[in-house]
């Protein structure tokens, strides 16, 4: 155990020598370098620029691939068939990314970031090539899973390596750049997918990854030089833990993704999957307790700082699903906007989010990480609760302004917490800690989709009678036959979803308020 200057103890894994800690003064990261710290040295500035470019390209690939496929679904189904299972194009990729994050995080702590990133990029490019060559829907879904296994390495390792490259004071800058990549991808992905599917062929959606990914891979191999590891035997790889984490995460996330869609929540398949998932959770605990270097080490959850951020960003993952799920339909059906204009109403928060992330460092240097996160998520709670107060039918600028403010609030909330976790652990723990954060956020998003979908369908059913759901109501509105009562029902359903998202934000606020340390511990560098 190591002790921070605030008096709190923080666990170390057996293979890591304690490194001196200091606490966060309002300008966290301004501490003196530690003597003898075993952190790998940062690359030279010239090489670092090339590595950062590679990281942004790699992150862009992972971000684009989560959005670019959606607009090409009609062309894909028309060519390959398999309409009943096309949703697995998204679910399979999401499952693979989520369950692989903890595994890649641990492997990057053992073998270094570069080999994990190279293998992940190669796997992603192989999956892209196979997707372009798919001959039916089952093959395309399987190859999307291969892509997702590479995408998990890209997401987690890129974020970890970004923290390795920059000292604490400069980490918000690189994290804000990566947030900007996500924002651009959220807007460009559907547009690029539609253009390629409409004017070329849907297979180019996957082939376009090859030149971009190859450039990122070359830059990483050429310019990223990690220092040699300490002599001595490497710790054994926890293959049993990796397989049990894969199985447990895959079963539980499948139950969440398919529940209420492919089968009712209380049906035999759903109950069987949840029961199997709980049994596998017990297996993971047993296996990981016996492992010398567990994939999911207990210190991640025994550390007050990391556990708090994991819970808070899990709630963030839950709430960010809500606008994406219902706002485009609300904008078209209630406000009467075109699909393009409806997309703009949603996308404005991806513009304010990275801008807010970029300035968050100036805020938390003055008031601290905990207070900055509380300020951001507190504002987000008020904004989400304000959405149901909008007049009916209202004007387009009203939800647009709220989404702009919501993005700004969440930028203040999320980035300081990520930087806080990455700064509270040493190099040999950073991959595992970062992966746990993004694993929890991805899991929150996976839970949020069926949860808010059930809220929408429940409200519509209560308002309209029968078994109405969002898909059938949207189809009727596309045909121009929906009465005013249907529009009002959609507005009520969207308001209910925003209230649920507001509750998730309030939960995150309470987690940070009562569980987060007042001053985040920071390792001297």
Class of secondary structure makeup? mainly alpha
- The strands making up the biggest β-sheet line up spatially as 1-2
Number of helices: 19
Give the averaged pLDDT, no decimals: 80
Low-pLDDT runs of 5+ residues are 1-39
CATH architecture verdict of the largest domain = Up-down Bundle
By DSSP, the count of extended strands is 4
For the record, the CATH class of the largest domain is Mainly Alpha
- Helical residues, percent: over 70%
- The total domain count is 3
Distance between the termini: 19 Å
Strand content: under 5%
How are the elements arranged and paired?
Elements: E1 2-3, E2 9-10, E3 21-23, H1 45-65, H2 73-80, H3 88-111, H4 113-132, H5 137-165, H6 171-199, H7 204-207, H8 209-223, H9 239-258, H10 268-290, H11 299-302, H12 304-333, H13 339-347, H14 349-367, H15 369-386, H16 397-423, H17 427-464, H18 470-478, H19 484-515, E4 521-523
Antiparallel strand pairs: 1-2, 3-4
Helix pairs in contact: 1-5, 1-6, 1-8, 3-4, 3-5, 3-9, 3-17, 4-5, 4-8, 5-6, 5-17, 6-14, 9-10, 9-17, 12-13, 12-16, 12-17, 12-19, 13-16, 14-15, 14-16, 15-16, 15-19, 16-17, 17-19
Describe the structure.
The chain is mainly α. It has 3 domains: 1-32 and 298-525, Growth Hormone, Chain: A; 41-226, MFS general substrate transporter like domains (Growth Hormone, Chain: A, Up-down Bundle); 239-291. It is built from 19 helices and 4 strands. Strands 1-2 form a two-stranded antiparallel sheet. The chain has a two-stranded antiparallel sheet with strand order 3-4. The longest helix has 38 residues, at 427-464. The radius of gyration is 23 Å and the shape is globular. The chain starts with a strand and ends with a strand. Residues 1-39 have low confidence and may be disordered.
